[in-house]
Specification:
Elements lengths: L1 H21 L3 E5 L4 E5 H41 L3 H6 L6
Antiparallel strand pairs: 1-2
Length: 95
């Protein structure tokens, strides 16, 4: 299993190095007050990482926080509610 993961990591590292070597041309981003020149491969990787981060942030803010709030509310309700099993354990039901 470890050898398979190691081979997969090496495969992707090699593909990344090949991708960077084949896209070494520079791309200029003009932000009106300054201009930045970066290699095309680095610009693409930066865009992918930014998209990954923004997507994760949207999921976290839109879903995870709401679910945490719901779990907290349900846990409070569960603490307030007496356990039905405790009350029924000491009772004799017609035996």
């Amino acid at each position: 299993m470890r050898i398979g993961i190691l081979l997969l990591v090496l495969l992707f590292a090699g593909a990344g190095a090949l991708f960077g070597a084949m896209n070494s041309e520079r791309v200029v981003f003009d932000f009106y007050f300054t201009a930045v020149s970066v290699p095309k491969g680095a610009a693409l990787i930066a865009a992918l990482m930014l998209g990954w981060f923004v997507g994760g942030l949207i999921v976290y803010l839109g879903l995870v926080l709401r679910l945490r709030r719901r779990v907290r509310t349900l846990a409070r309700e569960l603490k307030r509610r007496p356990l039905a099993a405790d009350g029924a354990a000491g009772q004799d039901h017609g035996a």
